[in-house]
Design brief:
Elements lengths: L17 H12 L4 H30 L1
The protein binds zinc ion.
């Protein structure tokens, strides 16, 4: 069986760095469906906006 990360026969998943393995695992759990990914991006953008306003609020409180 070839390596699931780089698809080389002489390689194994464990030959890659932990970081590469984690990135690979993360990719495996992500959807291949473009609509799903679009929705995920939209919800992440919403989340970023929330966090930005939260950050602004904290910063402005600090200045008082
Ligand atoms: Zn490999």
């Amino acid at each position: 069986m070839s390596c699931p990360i780089c698809h080389r026969g002489a390689c194994m998943k464990s030959f890659h760095s932990l970081e590469a393995q984690e990135r690979f695992d993360l990719k495996q759990t992500m959807s291949d469906d473009v609509d799903d990914l679009r929705e995920e991006i939209l919800s992440l953008q919403e989340r970023i906006k929330e966090l930005e306003s939260e950050l602004q609020r904290i910063l402005s409180e600090k200045e008082l």
